[in-house]
Design a protein that fits this description.
By secondary structure, the chain is α+β, with helices and mostly antiparallel strands. It has five helices and six strands. A hairpin with a 6-residue loop joins β2 and β3. The N and C termini lie far apart (63 Å). 14% of the residues are buried. The mean pLDDT is 91. The structure holds zinc ion. The site of zinc ion has 8 residues, from loops. InterPro entries: ATP-cone_dom, NrdR-like_N, RNR_NrdR-like. Keywords: ATP-binding, DNA-binding, Metal-binding, Nucleotide-binding, Repressor, Transcription, Transcription regulation, Zinc, Zinc-finger.
Length: 160
């Protein structure tokens, strides 16, 4: 990478730091020619194959905007959304693949969204999994109820 100040093609790494989420490395560099200092951020590339076949870089912002729609009127903050998007990115990166399709992102969203807000989860799942009958909603709600019951059983057992 060229020095942004004098265009010298060489630079020296003076510090490297891994981000808190472990997904990127920030390198502090110094140009040996003009002494200018600058930073570079290195991340493994992760691309998304859209249904249309178009390939674009993974974007947490896109995950957030997709989920934000499902969260309208719900007690979900921007910080919650940012955390969810980070979790989604970690999940899809763990697959070890540098190209994923939108379907895998949808799947990775369902779990954390469900923990965040069940109504938003049902809304998102209804679009993502293309619910088209009331029975689809009933089945999803029944699943949530069943999980609540088993969670309660565990709590009861632990309070004995
Ligand atoms: Zn320079």
């Amino acid at each position: 990478m060229h020095c942004p100040f004098c265009r010298n093609p060489d630079s020296r790494v003076i510090d490297s730091r891994t981000s808190d989420d472990g997904l990127s490395i920030r390198r502090r560099r110094q140009c040996p020619k003009c002494g200018g200092r600058f930073s570079t951020i290195e991340t493994a590339s992760l691309n998304v194959i859209k249904r249309s076949g178009v390939i674009e870089p993974f974007s947490r912002e896109k995950v957030m905007s997709g989920v934000r729609k499902a969260c309208q009127g719900r007690p979900v903050t921007e910080a919650n959304l940012a955390l969810l998007a980070q979790e989604v990115e970690e999940t899809v990166r763990q697959t070890g693949s540098s190209q994923i399709d939108t379907n895998e992102i949808g799947l990775a969203i369902l779990g954390p969204l469900r923990n965040l807000d069940e109504i938003a989860y049902l809304r998102f799942a209804s679009v993502y999994q293309a619910f088209d009958t009331l029975e689809d909603f009933e089945a999803a709600i029944e699943q949530l109820r069943a999980d609540h019951r088993s969670a309660r059983t565990v709590e009861d057992a632990s309070s004995l």
